[in-house]
């Protein structure tokens, strides 16, 4: 339950100790205003209406939910003294944490272009227009001086008078819909819950922060962060296999794995994986993959890739397609589920560790950030215990160092205004009912003798049989593909068509190719330089660049009947030249309703 006395205690504590000029005045006459938000002329769904309590020399910005004691954490209120340019922001992060920041600068810096000749009437009051720019946004404020009060629904315009309407870029509007006198305006009492004091409760301790720290803490409190790895080394080290700080390393140190309990993901929420990587000695571009292995009762197959990590690659089921080779752990079977790949990424040439290699006009980045929206996998991950892993293929003893988090962002009606149309909300919320991993040819155990994915050198390519126990509507394949073979005639540098075949019929073909690799030059201090003025990191590649992540594509498969099906991936893989060969890392997840 919300402690309704927290704001009063917070303001009293802060004002007494750090901000004497913000001490609350005696109750006076003022006004209570209710504001409604609209976007493109339509009310914002699920909004918490802004409440403004305004007097001549002070104002309190709150909301209906906060004022009624029904606000969800975190929530914020703002006390403003426009006459002396002071602004106190107080945020309740949870049942135990309250933070605050005192700002004596930003109000005084606000500049407005006044349009005395333009007026309009709002709620019976004659309003004048003021305009300003904020981060390239045009803000129009309509304010009245017909009442002895100053205030606004945001921190903009309190010095002008009483702001009854704010318009941003012509289509987002915050407009007063109600205004009424409020006798005995006591902001302290109002902040406690409309003047109705709750039973005495111990208020949360207030932490007074600088403005930047306050914004950061408030922002981070709005979503859930699941830390996975921190300063994690991924290198080639046969001796480092003991679990450390909850992380177990496999494949001679090139795979790091941690068991994580994921929270329930509510409909409309969004989920991201964040990875920050830098070289710890390896100078080369390497294949990386972030993946999960479901654990416990919800991992619906008897075997998983975890068996191979723990027991060796021979514990994984074999796949053969007639080219004379055996590939382990790459396709689904009745009792085996391959890895669920969250993100495919590629390290650059030695970012951070080799930043001492100077070139005129080049200031190298210190790390590479990768961030991927994995919301469409949330239905598979929600509320589950999973093994979260990261792989970077390398034979370097220094290897790479990385940090990784998974973040869950609750549904936000304000954010939804600027997101995809309502009919696509299902895609964002991950509400598709089925998510079945079908194949993953990335040799995550490369440094423990898992073979490269060279099965595309024959016409059969990669084929997977799967069964549906019920009809599947709106089926689609979440497909990630990258080509490898790093010499002039290797598939890394030659465009090659990928074809998806379902039940014997081609359903989709495309050429995966990246032509923007030169844009990431500053991540690649150790990249080789050629006589033609190009660097290795500049060269176009088969759907990847050094220092980037590869986006999945979604291939519509239509409605599928219950029963047996077969899906195949066919690629015109290039021929081997001496000891050089090409390979294709492809992963596919079946989704549907």
From TrEMBL:
Source organism, top-level taxon: Bacteria
Keyword entries, A-Z: Disulfide bond, Signal
Gene3D superfamilies: 2.60.120.230, Peptide-N-glycosidase F, N-terminal domain
Pfam assignment, any one: N-glycanase_C
Domain Peptide-N-glycosidase F N-terminal: 225-408
InterPro entries assigned: Cu2_ascorb_mOase-like_C, PHM/PNGase_F_dom_sf, PngaseF_C, PngaseF_N, PngaseF_N_sf
Protein name: Peptide-N-glycosidase F N-terminal domain-containing protein
Lineage: Bacteria, Pseudomonadati, Pseudomonadota, Betaproteobacteria, Burkholderiales
